[in-house]
Structure formats: C-alpha cells, structure tokens
Amino acid sequence: MTVRLRHDAIVRSLRRNGTSTIDKLAEEVGASRRTVLRDISTLRDEGFVIHSDVGRGGGLQLDPLSMQTTARLSVPEVFALLISVAAMRAGGNLPFSDLADTGLAKIEKALPSEKVRDLRAFLACLHIGQLSPLQNLSDVGKMDSELLTVFEICFLKQHYIHFEYRDAKGRKTKREVEPQAMLILPPLWYLVAWDPTRCDFRHFRMDRISSPVAVDTRSFRRRHVPFEDDVCPYSDLVP
C-alpha cells in the first residue's frame, strides 16, 4: 500500500468508526505503529483535526467537520477527472455539466502553480473525437491503472514509453515508442505514438496496453499528428 493510499485508508476508517486506536489502524493498513503515528502527524499537518485521548479506553477521533487544507490530488488524478468529464461531454451524455465544470475549476484553483502548469501541458496532448458506429466493442477491457502516471512522465519529459501490446487477435508484442498524443473516441481511449521501427504513427488502444514503463534514457521531439477532421483538441471542449 502506498503512502497516499494508507493515508486515505486511515481517514476513511476514522470517519467510519468514529474512534480507533493506533494498533487497530496499523492492523487495518498493514503497517507498524511507528508508521501510523507518522501518518497521523502528516494528516494533521495537512489540516485534518485528529484528537487523541490518553489512558485506558482512549483512542483517536477525527473531527466530523475536519477536512484537509492542502490539495493532495496528483496531476494524473485531476487529469483523469477532467478527461472523464470531457469524454462524457463529447458523447453528449453529461448531465449537470455546469456543476461538473464548477467543481473541476475549484479543484484546479486548489492546485499548486507547478501542478497547474503540468496539468495544462498534459491536457494539451489530449484530443477528443467520435467513434465509428461500426466499431466492434465486444472485447473492450480494463485499462492498466499505472498508465496515466507513466504517461505524465513520458509526455511532460518527452521520454519514450515501453509496454506490452495485445492486438485484436490476442498476439502480444513489446513496443517502445514516442508518445505524441492521447485520443478519446468514447468509450475507447488510444495512445497515439510515433513508432521509430515503422517510421509512422500508430494508434494503440489503451485497454490493450500492459506493463507500461517510462524510458528515461531516451527522449524525443514533438511531431505534428495528422488527426481526422472530426477530432478536436480538449481545449475546444472547455467552456
């Protein structure tokens, strides 16, 4: 369990149970007492009001009105929220779109300036279009949860990405390419990359990509991607 997931699990447990102990929390998150004590200290620094009762029968209590004062969302997490809304808007099935936009604007304002800069650079690589009604969707799978984190590194630092790819016939190959853009054709998501072994652009369905790794020893230059006329940048969909 990562530090972020452990912190989230501790907050959820305190909200759910009202009162807990260090030993019980340590057992729940699979960490030592010392680690949980450090986690509690960090959570307090982030704005959570956590009371400690000493003595027999005492424990930890989270103030029910307590909320963090420091934005803890990562760039890929905010990016995932934004593109999910954009994909729904492109598909014409986003109810309460005004409220969604207002909420996302508040999240962006809470981010540190360096994260906002990275987020906007990340979003500049995103394009949205419409999927052909003839596309077969019977084999759509789940995307690797590590993809966006690796994409952030590769797109912002212009590093090659290495991954395993499974084609429509189930054949697996290893690829090392230059990630140039992300394309959403709801409900399919694609990595658009320049493949140096084929000297051409290739579209890789993200649900067929596994074991993605950023190759920090190889960098590339930006290329103009020749999208179809019905594909537009994410920025064109932002009110």
What is the strand and helix layout of this fold?
Elements: H1 3-17, E1 19-20, H2 22-29, H3 33-45, E2 50-52, E3 60-62, H4 75-90, H5 97-110, H6 113-123, E4 126-128, H7 147-157, E5 159-166, E6 172-185, E7 188-195, E8 200-205, E9 209-219, E10 232-233
Helix pairs in contact: 2-3, 4-5, 4-6, 4-7
Fold and architecture overview:
- The protein is α+β, with helices and mostly antiparallel strands and 239 residues long.
- It folds into 2 domains: 3-62, Arc Repressor Mutant, subunit A (Orthogonal Bundle); 75-237, no CATH class.
- 37% of the residues lie in helices and 25% in strands.
- The protein has 7 helices and 10 strands.
- It has helices at 3-17, 22-29, 33-45, 75-90, 97-110, 113-123, 147-157; strands at 19-20, 50-52, 60-62, 126-128, 159-166, 172-185, 188-195, 200-205, 209-219, 232-233.
- The strands form 2 sheets. Strands 4, 5, 6, 7, 8, 9 and 10 form a 7-stranded mixed β-sheet that branches. Strands 1-3-2 form a 3-stranded antiparallel β-sheet.
- Helix 4 (75-90) packs antiparallel against helix 5 and helix 4 (75-90) packs across helix 7.
- It starts with a helix and ends in a 6-residue tail after the last strand.
